Amino acid sequence: MTTIRKTSNPNEASSEWPLDRNRLNVFDSRGAMAEAAAVAIARRISDVIKAKSMCRMIFAAAPSQSELIAALVEMPDIPWAKVTAFHMDDYLGLPADAPQRFSNWLDRHLFSKVDLGGIHRIRVNGEAEDICDDYSSLLAEAPIDIVCLGIGVNGHIAFNDPPIADFNDPAAVRVVELDAICRQQQVDDECFSDIADVPTHAVTLTIPRLLAADALYCVVPGSRKRNAVKAALEGPVSTACPASILRTHPDLTFFLDTEANPDGR
């Protein structure tokens, strides 16, 4: 497991490689990566429900997660009726029915396909501060058991971009301004036709809120993510690459395809 040495800056630390190799898995294809991740996540869901009779999960919504979500939907015997689902971020300023909204993406790919015990979506309407407070309260009702997440091309997790990421954020949910690299990624992912169409602000779960979960499963495919993965796995633990903080979590597993693997194999 990575050893972290604290520095005078609470948002920076230095680390020693390697990450526990049992928690770093690389596959020849996106499909194989997604299938392996789905098997591991399904096993964890079942174990949590056996122990607690319920499971609370947070899902990322992005094209990079499509294969994982599809594999989970097809996985037999997941007791979805005992799972309560959250998502980790969403845009501000889009119409409620905009297909780019992450709640709508998850509706199409997951929520409408399995019989979940509960679904908590980030609200579309109302004051942004109230939306954050309401979602924070829902998250705080019980521990979060599992987070399924990815990494952005700028190293973000959820919408915690390098300019604003805070490893000691006192809030659980907040409004953030998206940086240009993050907004361009949404265009490159073919979610928007032009960067001018991408909202400038969003609601996101903060880094401490994500790290408070019992288990994290980070699924990252594609060559455009390779530099961010390399920084997350091998660089200093720093808000310059917010995903680097994932290495400090005691129950984290990475799933990569060969294109995202910084070792290039």
What does this structure look like?
The protein is an alpha/beta fold. The chain is built from seven helices and 13 strands. It has helices at 30-52, 66-74, 102-111, 128-139, 180-188, 207-211, 226-234, and strands at residues 3-6, 12-16, 24-27, 55-59, 83-87, 89-91, 118-120, 146-149, 173-177, 201-205, 215-220, 237-238, 252-257. The chain has a seven-stranded parallel β-sheet with strand order 3-13-11-8-4-5-7, with helices on both faces. A hairpin with a 5-residue loop joins strand 1 and strand 2. The radius of gyration is 17 Å and the shape is globular.
**Strand percentage, roughly?**
15-25%
Number of strands: 13
What's the helix count? 7
User: What structural class results from the helix and strand content?
Assistant: alpha/beta
> Helicity range of the residues?
25-40%
Gross geometry: globular
Mind summarizing the main beta sheet? 7 strands, parallel
Evaluate the radius of gyration: 17 Å
- Low-confidence parts lasting 5 or more residues at pLDDT below 50? 1-18
Strand line-up of the largest beta sheet: 3-13-11-8-4-5-7
Mean pLDDT, rounded to whole units? 91
Distance between the termini: 22 Å
Order of helices and strands: EEEHEHEEHEHEEHEHEHEE
